[in-house]
Amino acid sequence: MSTCSVEKRKYKTFHRLGRKKYRPIGMALVVLLTLSVFPSCWRHSQTFAANTTVVIDGTHEYQTIEGLGGHMETHPPGFSPEFWDLLFNDIGATGIIITGPPDYKADPWEPLEILPMLKEAKAHGVKLYFCTFSSPKAEWKSSKSLYGGTLLPEYYKDFSNYIVDYINHIRTETGVDITHVNPIPEPSIEHAGKYPSCGISAKEYANFLKVFGPVLRRANNRVKIVAPACWNLTITISYVKTMLADEAARGYLDVVGSSIYGWPANNHTWNVSNPKQWQTLADIAHRYQKETFSDEASHVAAHMPMPHPAGIHTAKWIHHAFVDGDAVAFMWFLMLHKRKYNPALQGFVFSKDWPPGEFTSDGITKYGYAFKQFAHWVRPGAVRVESTSHDVHLLVSAYKHLTYKTFTIVAINDDTRKNKNVLFKMNKINQLSSLDVYRTSKGENSANLQPVTVAGDSFAYDLPKESITTFFGHFATP
Question: Following DSSP, what letter does each residue of 240-253 receive, concatenated?
């Protein structure tokens, strides 16, 4: 396992340098010195004095990103080309979650909505396809209903075969290969009477994996099993400890997945997505050489915050999943805007007229733009490298993509009062002469700003309060 970076383990108190008042002659000398040392900062700011430093070290590599995306099928958008362009090309979604129905041959919406959506995703180059199941068939459960109850052990193999059949059905109908599967999401909650669900204990889940794993492996060795995907990190950690302690079950659990909902009412830690718990989960996963995966996040659960006017919460959830949790993917619920039905359901694309009728897109939401700050410029195959910030309000992550020869930095300033004057120092990030700059804030939506020059493996930049700034560039060809 990689050595933990400073950014993942602790924050240090940053002591602001005192400011001095200069006479006119002294001030002129300061300006000249600034221009000579930090020429890039003059391109976007007439005054600049770095008050914090971020160090990016290309020699320390972490996980390889597999995708950013989310749920689509629950509220299908129709087949508008404009919608798919916004979602896949503009925002840059590279992952899709679908929910397999209890009986796909009988459910009327499945062939009408799921299959065309998957074909569009494939046509737009999406590679990550995550399939989850809200409930097994009613007759296989203790409740004899899709609502609540648990999967009976005598039907473990039947449900396993059903999942394999559905995966094959998707491949036959669309040409899409499911890459990840989560058979029983949110296993600690039964949701009786609300919507289809299935409760199962950690020990029972481990027993199910010992049946499901061999069935899936015989049918398709390429699909990774993601579990347990509990509704928050605390419960996921508890489940994972039990499941991974079972040696036989451990061999079939490829990816440790978790949603990030539902903090306890007496512990309102939603605002930072609880990075310490992400670290704990990552440590457990790495101990057994497993990947981690953030399978669902949004504002829809109890004790989660209402959407931020600059999309800060969205960006921070992604940051903590990637940096503290070493997650290989981040998924959102839902990617289609549904605010007219629930103010908290903030998707990436919205339509005033949806539903009924054909979907006509009215644009991207603020949360779509916050998501875009990562998804559009952090592409599958990018490797996260170490980035160290000593300012608790400045969250920075960095990614290099050797295939495309690109480099991306995403900097979040969540301070509600102060801008950040930042000097970025890069180690072993060579052949970068300039970086394009894009920013989302209360008044900006992935605004394309003036490029910044990289000189001497460093550059300086002003980061406004409550903003998300992405720096993106190509390595020079030798």
Answer: HHHHHHSHHHHTT-
> Using CA atoms, how far apart are residues 83 and 77, in angstroms rounded to an integer?
8
Q: How many CA atoms lie within 13 A of 175 on its CB side?
A: 8
Peptide bond preceding 116: is omega within 30 degrees of 0, i.e. cis? no
How far apart are the C-alpha atoms of 174 and 114, rounded to whole Å?
Answer: 10
- Helix ranges (H only) for 220-327 are 233-245, 247-250, 275-287, 312-323
Contact between 416 and 379 (Cβ < 8 Å)? no
Domain boundary among 375, 397, 412: 375
End-to-end CA distance of the chain: 32
Residues 256-287 have pLDDT tens digits of 999 988 654 444 444 445 788 999 999 999 99
Please tell me whether residues 200 and 309 are part of one structural domain: yes
Strands 383-389 and 394-401: antiparallel
**pLDDT tens-digit series, residues 331-343:** 998 887 665 556 5
3-state secondary structure of 97: strand
Burial of 75 (0-12, 13-18, 19+ CB in 10 A): middle
Domain that holds residue 199: 66-375
Given a contact cutoff of 8 angstroms between Cβ atoms, the answer to whether 409 and 470 are in contact is: yes
